[in-house]
Amino acid sequence: MRAVKIELYQVIEIDNSIRYNALIKLNSERWDPRMKKLLALLIAVAMLMAMPMALAEDAEEPVVITIFHTNDVHGRYNSVAGMGYAMMASYVNRARQSGNVLVLDAGDTLHGTVFASSVKGESIVEVMNAIGYDAMAMGNHDFNYGLDRLKELSDMMEFPLLSATITKRNGDHAFDAYAIIEIAEKKIAVIGAQNPDIVTAIHPDHVKDIAFSGVELVERAVMDVQKLGADAIVVLAHWGTPESVKTLASIPGVSVVIDGHSHTELYNIEQSADEAHALVTSTGEYLQNLGKVTLIFAPEGGLTVEAELIPNPGVFEDHTTIRAIEAVELAQSAELNRVIGETEVELMGERADVRTSESNWGNLACDIFIEATGADVALINGGNIRATTAAGPITARDIFTVFPFGNLVVMLEVDGQALIDSIEVGLSLYPEANGGFPQVGGMSFTFDPAKDAGERIVELLIAGEPVDPEATYKLATNDFLAAGGDGFTALAEFGITMEIGAMDEVITDYFRENSPVAPAVEGRITVVE
User: Fold this and answer.
1) Best label site of 236, 344, 371, 402, fewest CB within 10 Å?
2) Do 374 and 431 meet the contact criterion of CB atoms below 8 Å apart?
3) What is the pLDDT of residue 158?
């Protein structure tokens, strides 16, 4: 009888889901009944050996979901200041290959650079769609193009734009309050939240048809998603300082608050079981960091939340994202890169400078306003100036980068008391950086920060003479302040008597006709030490 070789693969099924293959090799000179018994014994042994392995591998593992998040990007799409969207996309896509990933944004994203503003935010939406964002909560600067435009951008987004706290005048939500995203068999609820105080940093005409409410509407949204079976609740907020955000983090049921607006870095946090509030995290600004929140669901129940910041992922830049960016840049570049003038000195526009002290960019802008309107004095908010400009040739792109908001140059006829009240508002938070800090022309003032807010002006001079509270002065400013923005409500009582045009266009025309320029800090603002 010839030799017989038998190879048998036994498939063992456990819980209809885990399959193991047992391979038995049997060599024999004969095939007889005794061989059948031996074969049956070997199969039984193989099954017993396989079952412990199957049971061990059937043990439940924690479910891990990673949330990457951004905030206060302000249109900084490339890797000049931070990592840029292309590098961020590569890091996120690599994580997607081996894990469960969500990508969220906490607002102030659609505006702030020529890349964004020249097409009213559409370029940023295109890049965010390419990256695959899952949700966004708008910030105050996302309203800079107006409510109607924000609605149009929302329709372009392949992800929801969220707010539980912004309502129509009839009380209905103006945007989706929350989204429930199902991933890894878990329901992750994302609730949008905007601090009602940010309304003062939005052009009043852009929010006249909506209302901003507080934490009570977030609480209501939390209860709604709990009824829908949410396994974790993320509050995606454009709220503010770490202390004020605790009002959101203290809502029962909230797992984590991802925040924006304050440009604060909150990271390397591990939530302990005895915390009275949820973990709060924020990335800072301008894509200098990528935020990472890790949700760890234990098999036996319970959720652990961890947070960290990734300052530079150190990976190549995603080609799909780069191509989307380059297509927009190419369409913009010819006109924006044209030289329109020259400055002999660096024009200071750093956030820390223009929001706390006199700046030569602020002085120049105010002087340009006075020349364009024939006004007595000029006043703009420091937050209107968004960048420093190096000495040398000036392009249209440079002007657009510094003044990206599309504000108009306007003139009002106001009384002296309104000027006093407005400047007091701008000084009220000093020495804290304040977007409403006054940059002035045609006047100078001295203030004492040791005094109570609202009573800090020691002296206000116009054309070298003390201001007369009852006299009328022609004031050049931007339409944002004229409408009461940044808390300058005293100006909103006076109607606009002249409208010149967009700030960037007025300033560009000035450079074309008056270059080179060399403005200085000359003592228009004096602080009592």
Assistant:
1) 344
2) no
3) 98
The structural domains of the chain, with segments of one domain joined by +, span 4-57, 63-328, 338-527
The tokens of 40 are what?
Answer: 């049956």
- Give per-residue pLDDT as tens, 18-43: 222 223 233 333 345 555 555 555 55
> 272: pLDDT confidence band, cut at 50, 70 and 90?
very low
pTM: 0.73
The pLDDT score that the predictor gives to residue 313 is 73
CB 5 within 8 A of CB 27: yes
- For residues 480, 385, 403 and 110, what is the CA-based torsion angle, rounded to 10 degrees? -80
DSSP string covering 203-234, please? -GGGSTTEEE--HHHHHHHHHHHHHTT-SEEE
Burial class, 124, CB count within 10 angstroms (exposed 0-12 / middle 13-18 / buried 19+): buried
| N residues, the chain | 529
- Indicate the DSSP class of residue 6: E
The pLDDT value given to residue 3: 33
Q: HEC states along 475-510?
A: EEEEHHHHCCHHHCHHHHHCCEEEEEEEHHHHHHHH
The alpha-carbon radius of gyration of the chain (Å, integer) is 31
Q: What is the pLDDT of residues 291-311, one digit of tens each?
A: 999 999 999 989 999 999 998
d(CA 420, CA 417): 5
The token pair that represents 190 in the structure block: 């994302």
End-to-end CA distance of the chain: 112
How does DSSP classify residue 82? S
Report which residue type is found at 387.
Answer: A
Tell me whether the CATH fold assigned to 63-328 matches the one assigned to 338-527. no
pLDDT of residue 38: 53
Among candidate residues 478, 92, 75, 53, the one with its CA nearest the CA of residue 310: 92
Do 117 and 75 form a contact (C-beta atoms < 8 A)? yes
CA 164 → CA 141, 167, 208, 209, 457, distances in Å? Answer: 18, 8, 18, 16, 40
For residue 231 the two structure tokens come to 């396994």
**In whole angstroms, what is the distance from residue 190 CA to residue 187 CA?**
10
State the amino acid at position 270 in one-letter form: E
113 — pLDDT class (breaks 50, 70, 90): confident
Where b means 16+ CB within 10 Å and e means fewer, 390-416 reads eeeebbbbbbbbbbbbbbbbbbbbbbb
CATH no. of 63-328: 3.60.21.10
Mean pLDDT for the stretch of residues 402-426: 94
- What are all long-range contacts of 220-227, with beta carbons under 8 Å and residues at least 24 apart? 220/164, 221/164, 221/177, 221/178, 221/191, 222/191, 222/251, 222/252, 222/253, 222/254, 223/253, 224/177, 224/178, 225/178, 225/180, 225/189, 225/191, 226/253
Instruction: Please give the Cα distance from 400 to 410 (Å, whole number).
Output: 18
- pLDDT confidence of residue 209: 94
Q: Count the Cβ atoms, other than its own, within 10 Å of residue 467.
A: 22
b/e map of 64-87 (b: 16 or more CB within 10 Å)? ebbbbbbbbbbbbbbeeebbbbbb
Class of domain 338-527: alpha beta
Angle, helices 319-336 vs 84-96, to 10°: value is: 170
